[in-house]
Amino acid sequence: MRTLKPRTVLLTGFDPFGGETVNPSWLAAERLHDEIVAGHRIESVQLPTAFARAPRLLRAAIRRHRPALVLCVGQAGGRSAISLERVAINVIDARIPDNDGAQPVDAPVTRGGPAAYFSTLPIKAMYADLDAATIPVEISQTAGTFVCNQVFYALMRTLAPMPAPRPRGGFVHIPFIDEQVEHRPKLPSMPLDVIVAGLRIAIDTALRTRHDRRIFGGATH
Ligand code: PCA
Q: Is any atom of ligand 1 closer than 6 Å to the C-beta of 23?
């Protein structure tokens, strides 16, 4: 009997940046590598926190693994909840240098590209399921203007012209893990186990949900 090869979810995390010794986005992605979620196998790939290299590596991973779904994850130190990103914008404005020392100011991700791309993940359904699991979660209206937003934009631009069934994709920011704030008690954090559990739920819901739910997730400012 021929067994069907499970389809793939590409899950990316970043290497440490900005003086941190770990990046929880990669620690979490690494823990989920090879897991089967909703009949799909998770393939975890690390991206460098570097403008010149990250999008290229992401595109190579998409070509190689032909995923049904791509979830890119990054650290957002200072945020207190798992942040489901709604939109990637066509701008880079780096407050700190990336891991190659590059610090572009007001540069487009793609010259002549659209101003923005929306996530194609069902972020409201993901929000509802994470919330039901009592994991702190929020919808975020901006992924910033650093490498994460750039990778998110490059991801959506890569997926947009693909033929059906077009892989779906999006971006999730996560807080610092507890170990990162031991000496910075004013900063919020989340245990790595909770982040891993949250990403597993997010992926499961994304794979099972065709049409997103219509529930509140807007912001007034
Ligand atoms: N967070 C950064 C880039 C890498 C990461 O994990 C960001 O939010 O842009």
A: yes
